[in-house]
């Protein structure tokens, strides 16, 4: 048996290698799966597979850098150690893993678990390099004793502001912080599943959320109160309060794998034992203030904004359409920006705009732009300030004042007035012009008919009287 024999998987064009352990081991020996990334960092990886016949004993890591003929190369590895639970043939099924967000397929195999390997007694005076390394694989002289090392780490929820106006954005960040002085080995565990449960508790109902969608967790050095930490951002989002209620973030917990360390470590032995510890954040609240009195207080956006506009041409003719873009740039709730309110007027027909928006979430800030593209048709000749028609009011939380973005464009319109053209095109004057006459004619007609009926009745009465007189005689 050769312990270092490996079954390697190489992905074409990738610097990732997944190695399976040997085909045969003793019951008292370990079997491993090793992920190695060459000339790159090992940023993320999936959970190692569970294998029937083996029990996970935890992970360890290693890195190597070398310079040969002036060329530098490096590698970083993560090793999952498995311990056999029985003797016999164990089938390693094929499996898939994601490494640095790329999927890899690994072909399984069979591993024979034999009786425990006999350890030879060695001369204690022999040098380290002369003795059998298998002696130290699980340690010498019985079971290894593991001790718990006190960690210097914490789970923290922080906010960029402690008090905001209604509609004003603040960024909340949930981080795992590891002090530079920490000596307790730890790693994340089932983070995706845990994060889903954490966010159910964490997201406030009275806020609009812009999620930064952290895809890979990488350490960043920071300093807090003069102490150096490595910050691992787990979740980050900017929130915009919809009302003046206090924004409450409850305490949440994150379970981490924390390893106990061998009291008497051996060179080849299992020097760490997997354990779990839950870290809990402190609750946090952000106070929300009402905006100052203003007629549009309940409708304005809050943030820092500027206007960029584009007009196809400044010299126009009545009846001919022209395009105009009113684009708002800045930092704030871009999604919540409403179109400018344009009052009805007799100088232009202004149609509903097409709307586009771009949002950038970066370095704890949400910024971008929202563009309103209008078509308008001038109806009156003359010179006009578009600022009289296109205005947008917002509240600036830094100056604590309301401000207005107003168009600075001037247009000159030539041609005949067309403001009454719509009425004329639908003119029913010929009907209304005859309305009074028709009404009078109707009344005269009714009057003449009444006179004829009365005359006929009178004639009939005379005839009837004459007939009566004749028959009487």
Model description:
The protein has 473 residues and is mainly beta. It has 3 domains: 7-118, Immunoglobulin-like; 153-289; 301-421, Sandwich (Immunoglobulin-like). It is 13% helix and 47% strand. It is built from 4 helices and 32 strands. Strand 17 (219-224) and strand 18 form a beta hairpin. The longest helix is centred in the C-terminal third of the chain and has 38 residues, at 435-472. The termini are far apart. 19% of the residues are buried. Mean pLDDT is 81; it is low at 1-14, 66-70, 119-141 and 425-447.
Tally the beta strands. Answer: 32
> How big a fraction of the residues is strand?
over 45%
Total helical elements: 4
Net shape: elongated
Alpha carbon gyration radius: 43 Å
What does the average pLDDT come to?
Answer: 81
The profile of the biggest β sheet is: 7 strands, mixed
Which oligomeric state applies? single chain
Number of domains: 3
Distance between the termini: 159 Å
| Helix vs. strand class | mainly beta
Helical content band:
10-25%
- Which spans have pLDDT < 50 for at least 5 consecutive residues? 1-14, 66-70, 119-141, 425-447
